[in-house]
Amino acid sequence: MILTVGGIKGGSGKTSVATGVAVMLARLGRQVLLVDADEQQTSMDFSMMREAAGVEPMITTVALHDTAVRTEVRKMLDRYDDIVIDTGGRDTTSQRAALTISDFLLVPFVPGSFDVWTCEKVDKLVGECAAINEGLHAFSFLNRADHQGADNSESAEILSEMEHVTFWDDVRLGVRKAFRSAGGKGLAVCEWKGENRKGDSKAEEEFQVLFDRICGIAIIDRKEVA
Ligand SMILES: Nc1ncnc2c1ncn2[C@@H]1O[C@H](COP(=O)(O)OP(=O)(O)OP(=O)(O)O)[C@@H](O)[C@H]1O
Ligand SMILES: [Mg+2]
Predict the structure, then answer these.
(1) In total, how many domains does the chain have?
(2) What are phi and psi of 200, to 5 degrees?
């Protein structure tokens, strides 16, 4: 599958999700290519950190921009089971190019923030890209969600109204240090251990729910060899 993690707001968790999903797919034994389509190249940094620390499986990562996101990815399709594209937080040529060839788009939104206000623009962007790429299916979910309070449900209500993007009500990543710490070390949250040598089981569970949803829509057999 070709999976893009996008949106038009910075800091919503696109890179955290793209890198985490790429690692989890690779841990299933799948051939995965991570495409960094953001000039900040945070996904590139993630993979370099991972490689420097000698963490397996390594994630093959390339930086591509503008229309090269479409042309180069197409050339590499045969070599990979899954291509995960991390875009920048703006409506860029790179993101549009990614959406013309993607099977799936995931858009994380931070609840109770300016993020949610961008949903109309995201909806329009997806609608335009889906007119070119009929196979595009887009999904949104809350990331960096508060553990309680009305922001989550209010944001969920707004996101549920999007026309071209299906809101995943059952997928929710809370604001958790483990997500930040894992990403900063080039690890998926399921690989991360804190100072007490323990992981964060809540964070792992939350990310697993997201991953299971992706495997469900992409019809990926999770029982493949780890
Ligand atoms: N669920 C979460 N809990 C805590 N911190 C998070 C969570 N998700 C992301 N972060 C942190 O928030 C910051 C922004 O996340 P990330 O880089 O993934 O966002 P982004 O959408 O890729 O940003 P940009 O638009 O700048 O590329 C990072 O420091 C990341 O570790
Ligand atoms: Mg990013």
Answers:
(1) 1
(2) -115, 100
Torsion of CA 93, 96, 102, 105, to 10 degrees: 120
Structural domain for 84, as ranges? 2-218
Three-class SS state of 156: helix
Residues 18-76 have pLDDT tens digits of: 999 999 999 999 999 999 999 999 999 999 999 999 999 999 999 999 999 999 999 99
Compute the distance from residue 78 Cα to the ligand 1 centre, in Å. 31
> 29 C-alpha vs ligand 2 centroid, how far in Å?
25
Assign residue 204 the CATH number of its domain. Answer: 3.40.50.300
Paired residues of 225 in beta bridges: none
Sign of torsion over alpha carbons 123, 211, 154, 152 = negative
Question: Does the residue 223 lie in any domain?
Answer: no
Answer whether 0.70 is exceeded by the pTM: yes
Residue 224 lies in a domain: no
Which residues approach ligand 1 with their CB closer than 6 A? 10-16, 38, 40, 42, 88-89, 143-144, 173, 175-176, 179-180, 183
Tokens of 52: 């420097």
Report yes or no on 75 lying in a domain: yes
